[in-house]
Amino acid sequence: MTLQAPYDPDNIFARILRGEVPSVKVWEDDHILAFMDVFPQSEGHVLIVSKTSTARTLLEIEPEALARLTAAVQRTARAVEQALSPEGFQIMQFNGEAGGQTVFHLHFHIVPRWADRPMKGHGHAPMADAAELRALADRIAAALE
Ligand code: 5GP
């Protein structure tokens, strides 16, 4: 998938946003959905997407939607820090297949990090147990401000 391509309305995140595919939600409002990555690279790996923008990459998103998205990333990262007490975290955002992107609905990753726990590779992590993801999502949601 090149950087310049039309938005596919049947990409997996669009289907999650329409409720056609289940997801473990952390929080949502009219503009944003935060949900657990089902192939987490570390414990507490959260994805943040815009509900209103069909931008595929950072190049395409409208400035107002980007502002809401980045504010949501910060809000969620603060809750992850409160809930899970990581020693660090990574914010990741991939653009284009050559840039590591696999789902072409713009999203940010929050990946909590601990010094003694190696992070699993992007695209190489096993599927998580849904109940474990739900428990993590509940802890993060409880820490939201
Ligand atoms: P990208 O490679 O596009 O930056 O990230 C896509 C992310 O979506 C990956 O981390 C992958 O694990 C995650 N992912 C792929 N399919 C699903 C799914 O059906 N549900 C959830 N919750 N995450 C998914």
Question: Can you tell me about this structure?
Answer:
By secondary structure, the protein is of the alpha+beta class. The protein has a single domain (12-142), classed as HIT-like (HIT family, subunit A). It is built from three helices and five strands. It has helices at residues 12-17, 63-84, 130-142, and strands spanning 25-28, 32-36, 46-50, 88-92, 107-113. A five-stranded antiparallel sheet has the order 1-2-3-5-4. A hairpin with a 3-residue loop joins β1 and β2. The longest helix is centred in the middle third of the chain and has 22 residues, at 63-84. Bound molecules: guanosine-5'-monophosphate.
What's this entry about, in short?
By secondary structure, the chain is an alpha+beta fold. The chain has helices at 12-17, 63-84, 130-142, and strands at 25-28, 32-36, 46-50, 88-92, 107-113.
Keywords:
145 residues, alpha+beta, HIT family, subunit A, 5-stranded antiparallel β-sheet, 18% strand, binds guanosine-5'-monophosphate
List the SSEs and their pairings:
Elements: H1 12-17, E1 25-28, E2 32-36, E3 46-50, H2 63-84, E4 88-92, E5 107-113, H3 130-142
Antiparallel strand pairs: 1-2, 2-3, 3-5, 4-5
Guanosine-5'-monophosphate binds at residues 12, 21, 23, 35-39, 94, 100-103.
Ligands bound to this protein structure: guanosine-5'-monophosphate
Named at the architecture level, the CATH assignment is 2-Layer Sandwich
- The count of DSSP E runs of length 2 or more, i.e. the number of strands, is 5
- What's the end-to-end separation, in Å? 37 Å
Strand order in space, largest sheet:
1-2-3-5-4
Q: How much is the radius of gyration in Å?
A: 14 Å
CATH fold description = HIT family, subunit A
Number of alpha- plus pi-helical segments? 3
By helix and strand content, what is the structural category? alpha+beta
- Give the % helix: 25-40%
Q: What portion of residues belong to β-strands? A: 15-25%
- Could you tell me the mean pLDDT? 97
The CATH fourth-level homologous superfamily: HIT-like
Shape: globular
Task: Give the assembly state of these chains.
Answer: single chain
Mind telling me the CATH class? Alpha Beta
Instruction: Provide the domain count.
Output: 1
Order of helices and strands: HEEEHEEH
Poorly predicted ranges: none
Biggest sheet record: 5 strands, antiparallel
